[in-house]
Description:
Layout: H1 2-11, H2 22-30, H3 39-45, E1 47-49, H4 57-68, H5 71-82, E2 100-103, E3 116-118, E4 123-126, H6 132-146
Parallel strand pairs: 1-2, 2-4
Antiparallel strand pairs: 3-4
Amino acid sequence: MEAMRQGFSSVMPLSNLQLFYANEMSQLLCGTGVSMWTEEELCTNLQPDHGYTGTSTAVKHLIQVMTEFEQEEQRAFLKFVTGCPRLPVGGFKSLHPRLTVVKKSVDGPPDSYLPSVMTCVNYLKLPDYSTPQSLRSKLLIAISEGQNSFHLS
């Protein structure tokens, strides 16, 4: 705690903290609790790789599904993929490493498999689902079942 205090005071005198309410400091340090992202923000900051491109149907379906998420689903998605339910201050463009979506190789029909993640590098391994509805369904199952668990893949 002392190291944080010293680091913070090197940027701004601690006495100036009296100017802020606690919720304002939380927003400055942790970002807002409201993540509501846009399609444009996702298209700009989502990094398709290893089998997917920005024009891949699966990536377009993912962006569609993510744009339709309610706020609680967004928080759960972020926690699933990054380990944190909030985006950093600045949103997706400030997320490091960037959110990367790769094609998950599967044996059999992709709609039978769940997506998986590597939270340490913000990496979503996504099967090539047949429809946005299938993607949404499987993603929400993985999000709810994958919370607080750790598996090697």
